[in-house]
Request: fold
Amino acid sequence: MLVPQASITYSPSTYRRAERAMRCAPFCHPLYTVMLDGSVDLAEIGDRAGSSRGYTLRPISERAVEDDLMWLIQVGAIRREVDGQGITSRYRLAPIGRQLFGRWDKGDRIAGTASWLARLWNQLLRWRILR
Reply:
């Protein structure tokens, strides 16, 4: 698995926001690995399917997974795939997500590694209290 060299430069605040969002999300290393090489369908991430594949630490409803994925889209870490008929239910890493993932150790759990302060800050941003 090759991580491409950074061809796009992002501001430090953009990196921090995307990394915080990825670390606060309930997703684990295996999910980001699959998203690096291809795309993953929403149904594969939610409920027991996702936890059995190691994508999440515990089963999470598809609705909650979709909410977290939409936040990761807003911060630019992932993107939704589009086919000839429109938007699909498949997701993959966006360029900034690829860059961040390339920095993390392969053994890094990612999920649950954010501090309580980072989680609070991330949630305030999600609720649009802070801009």
In short: The chain has a mean pLDDT of 86. The first helix runs from residue 12 to 24. Residues 14 and 75 are 8 Å apart (CA to CA).
